[in-house]
């Protein structure tokens, strides 16, 4: 029997980690990306082409047994075109929905999942009306193609509306705009979950996340939350997955305000806040995504102790301190350094909270990253 080839649209670090985790299953990969430099290409054959180029897509479809994504902004029509030729997971309908913040929030509301106040903003007049209704502070975001805080403008008072429109108004007719009430949350949480082809649903424990300038900086798992909040988050994730007929791993990002969960967005792919599962769980999100899309039994999502993931943005720090710490694991994505770019991460694991807090504080100090680890250490040491 010839080996199964998994095709991945998008060749960044997520595709790279998928390929690495698929090797023990004997899988082959083909990665498609618009750049010949895509870092997954260091581990898997890389097909360079535009996602809208039918000849390139046809070549891709011809060579793979199943296709999936490492980023959500693959054109929905390309995903659909591909799905007519080869099994594609998650399904193109789910992908299309998560590409539009307005459609996504509308679905959450339909499923009785609380969301921040929001309004569609097709025109400048609509923006004025939305700001008057929702109030300030609020955030104007592009409906499509935004990520990691890009395509967002914070409106602190009505005096900022002109500046917000100057910054994003030109995109109202192309990618669309949405206004959201600003949520004064105490915590950001995410559910990373997986649903198999047979409908089986499994989730890793809730993760708490800290962002800097809209980009994930640190994650802690399991999040230190009470059982009822945990159960609510899981039931939201499950409801969404079932409604979408979702297959594969996804992340549901949530704000926690005064004990209430509000859904922010759904990422239809393996997720940065699930990287800790590589060492911190019995089965990683990458392995379970592959099992799901291939129709294999899903792996156990139980945690191994407590884990903290730290993102490396712009350039890699010196690995020595992390590598010489018990429970320290290093991931260098093999990318060129560039301001704002996710170039790697580390996961630090321990069997219990205080041991992790101590290791984190020590490594943070050695790396000069005290500010990055401080909120995680503080959370671990809360009574
Ligand atoms: P997003 O691209 O929507 O995930 O936004 C990136 C980050 O901006 C989030 O993780 C939050 O830290 C912050 N953010 C986004 N939307 C809101 C909101 N409605 N209220 C408060 N903070 C937000």
TrEMBL record:
Record-level GO cellular component terms: cytosol
Protein's UniProt name: N5-carboxyaminoimidazole ribonucleotide synthase
InterPro entries assigned to the protein according to its UniProt record, in alphabetical order: ATP-grasp, ATP-grasp_carboxylate-amine, ATP_grasp_subdomain_1, PreATP-grasp_dom_sf, PurK, PurK_C, PurT/PurK_preATP-grasp, Rudment_hybrid_motif
Enzyme Commission code(s) on record: 6.3.4.18
Stored NCBIfam families: PRK06019.1-2, PRK06019.1-5, purK
Coiled-coil portions: none
Gene3D superfamilies: 3.40.50.20, ATP-grasp fold, A domain, ATP-grasp fold, B domain
GO biological process, one term: 'de novo' IMP biosynthetic process
HAMAP family linked to this entry: PurK
Source species of the chain: Luteimonas terrae
Keywords of this entry: ATP-binding, Ligase, Nucleotide-binding, Purine biosynthesis
Gene Ontology molecular functions: 5-(carboxyamino)imidazole ribonucleotide synthase activity; ATP binding; metal ion binding; phosphoribosylaminoimidazole carboxylase activity
Assembly information from the UniProt record: Homodimer.
Binding, ATP: 101, 141, 146-152, 180-183, 188, 211, 264-265
Class of the enzyme per the UniProt entry, highest EC level: ligase
Pfam families documented for this protein: ATP-grasp, PurK_C, RS_preATP-grasp-like
Catalytic function, reaction form: 5-amino-1-(5-phospho-beta-D-ribosyl)imidazole + hydrogencarbonate + ATP = 5-carboxyamino-1-(5-phospho-D-ribosyl)imidazole + ADP + phosphate + 2 H(+)
Keyword ATP-binding part of the UniProt annotation: yes
UniProt record similarity statement: Belongs to the PurK/PurT family.
Origin superkingdom: Bacteria
Entry keyword annotation includes Cell inner membrane: no
Function: Catalyzes the ATP-dependent conversion of 5-aminoimidazole ribonucleotide (AIR) and HCO(3)(-) to N5-carboxyaminoimidazole ribonucleotide (N5-CAIR). Catalyzes the ATP-dependent conversion of 5-aminoimidazole ribonucleotide (AIR) and HCO(3)- to N5-carboxyaminoimidazole ribonucleotide (N5-CAIR).
């Amino acid at each position: 029997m010839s080996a199964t080839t998994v095709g991945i649209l998008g060749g960044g670090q997520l595709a790279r980690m998928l390929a690495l985790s698929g090797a023990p299953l004997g899988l082959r990969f083909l990665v498609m990306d618009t750049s010949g430099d895509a870092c997954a290409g260091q581990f898997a054959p890389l097909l360079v082409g535009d996602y809208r180029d039918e000849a390139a897509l046809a070549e891709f479809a011809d060579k793979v047994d199943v296709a999936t994504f490492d980023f959500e902004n693959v054109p929905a029509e390309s995903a659909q075109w591909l799905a007519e030729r080869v099994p594609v997971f998650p399904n193109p309908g789910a992908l299309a929905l998560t590409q539009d913040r307005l459609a996504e929030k509308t679905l959450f509301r339909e499923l009785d999942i609380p969301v921040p106040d929001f309004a569609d903003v097709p025109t400048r007049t609509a923006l004025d009306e939305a700001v008057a209704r929702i109030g300030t502070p609020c955030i104007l975001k592009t409906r499509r193609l935004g990520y990691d805080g890009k395509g967002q403008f914070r409106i602190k008072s009505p005096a900022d509306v002109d500046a917000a429109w100057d910054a994003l108004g030109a995109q109202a007719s192309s990618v669309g705009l949405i206004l959201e009430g600003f949520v004064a949350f105490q915590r950001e949480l995410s559910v990373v979950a997986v649903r198999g082809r047979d409908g089986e649903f499994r989730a890793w424990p809730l993760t708490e996340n800290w962002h800097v300038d809209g980009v994930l900086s640190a994650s802690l798992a399991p999040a230190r939350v009470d059982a009822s909040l945990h159960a609510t988050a899981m039931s939201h994730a499950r409801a969404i997955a079932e409604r979408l007929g979702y297959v594969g791993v996804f992340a549901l990002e949530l704000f926690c305000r005064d004990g209430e969960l509000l859904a922010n967005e759904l990422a239809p792919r393996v997720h940065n806040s699930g990287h800790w599962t590589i060492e911190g769980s019995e089965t990683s999100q990458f392995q379970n995504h592959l099992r799901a899309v291939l129709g294999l039994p899903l792996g156990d999502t139980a945690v191994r102790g407590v884990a903290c993931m730290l993102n490396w943005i712009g350039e890699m720090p010196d690995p020595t301190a992390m590598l010489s710490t018990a429970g320290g694991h290093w991931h260098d994505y093999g990318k060129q350094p560039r301001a704002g770019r996710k170039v790697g991460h580390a996961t630090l694991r321990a069997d219990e909270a205080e041991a992790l807090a101590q290791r984190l504080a020590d490594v943070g100090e050695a790396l000069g990253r005290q500010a990055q680890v401080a909120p995680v250490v503080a959370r671990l040491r809360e009574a």
